TrEMBL record:
Name of the protein in its database record: Putative terpenoid synthase-related protein
Pfam families: SQS_PSY (PF00494)
InterPro entries reported in the protein's UniProt record: HSQ_synthase_HpnC (IPR017827), Isoprenoid_synthase_dom_sf (IPR008949), Squ/phyt_synthse (IPR002060), Trans_IPPS_bact-type (IPR044843)
GO molecular function: geranylgeranyl diphosphate synthase activity
Length: 276
């Protein structure tokens, strides 16, 4: 999967407990492969939907303990082990597929509520699956996880405007475009202007607030998981910093994290303090 959003999640890193690494890796490859089916290559929409339907059929087969097709055996064989060993919630895995199908058929979002509903299925399930593996299930932690995961997804959108717009996708809500006086057609022409930069700035400010509302979760996860999440949160916030450094001109330029950002992210992660 080329979508950077999933790169923000821990995948069998040194901070991930060894007992959980196979399950985390299995979930990652499940999401990554499905996203490739929805996004990569030049297959027509009908073919993408057919492939995702076949992928869903293999998921159902795995959940029922039946044999899967050989097409994605490298994905579903490890996932079947993870489902059996950790009782992974099937609805969360289903939600991810629903989001990928939506990516094929929907390219505009009317408002932030509609966009967050997409994030509820495209991003939040991954965080909830990870919390499930760590045995964290209280309502407040789930809510904060959703905030972090939605923020990561949104940050990816604002970072990737120069990639998504040529593909015909606009994730900035249409009511926000109207409020800032930015014409949809101008966005698809990637016309950089004072108004378009103000539009991106408003989305980044909203997203930063969402991320910070979820950040206290880092103090609730046990041991290394909490430190892993600190890096995830600070990595996302660092991308927002980079968008700001570009003066929010991301219609044509895509900011990236570099190796030199690592020490700063680590320093900021270490400075995160629990608040009363």
């Amino acid at each position: 999967m080329s979508v950077d959003h999933y790169e923000n999640f821990p995948v069998a890193s040194l901070l991930c407990p060894p007992a959980l690494r196979p399950a985390v890796t299995a979930v990652y490859h499940y999401a990554r492969t499905a996203d490739d089916l929805a996004d990569e290559g030049d297959a027509p929409a009908a073919q993408r939907l057919s492939d995702l339907a076949a992928y869903r059929a293999d998921l159902h087969a795995v959940a029922a303990g039946a044999a899967v097709s050989q097409r994605w055996a490298a994905v579903f064989e490890p996932l079947s082990v993870a489902i059996a060993k950790h009782a992974l919630p099937l609805p969360l895995l289903e939600d991810l597929l629903d989001a990928f199908v939506q990516d094929v058929v929907q390219t505009r979002y009317s408002d932030r509520a509609e966009l967050l509903d997409y994030c509820r299925r495209s991003a939040n399930p991954v965080g909830r699956l990870l919390l499930h593996l760590y045995g964290v299930q209280d309502a407040d932690s789930l809510q904060r996880s959703d905030a972090i995961c939605s923020a990561l997804q949104l940050i990816n959108f604002w970072q990737d405007l120069s990639i998504d717009l040529p593909r015909g996708r606009l994730y900035i809500p249409l009511d926000q475009c109207a409020a800032h006086g930015v014409d949809e057609a101008a966005l698809f022409l990637q016309h950089d202007s004072v108004a378009s930069r103000a539009l991106v700035q408003a989305q980044c400010a909203w997203t930063r607030g969402l991320m910070l509302s979820g950040a206290p979760l880092v103090h609730r996860l046990p041991g290394r998981a909490g430190w892993e999440l600190r890096g995830v949160v600070q990595g996302g916030l660092r991308i927002v910093d980079k968008i700001e450094a570009l003066q929010f001109a991301t219609l044509r330029r895509r900011p990236r994290l570099r190796a030199l950002d690592g020490p700063l992210i680590a320093w900021r992660a270490c400075r995160m303090r629990a608040r009363a």
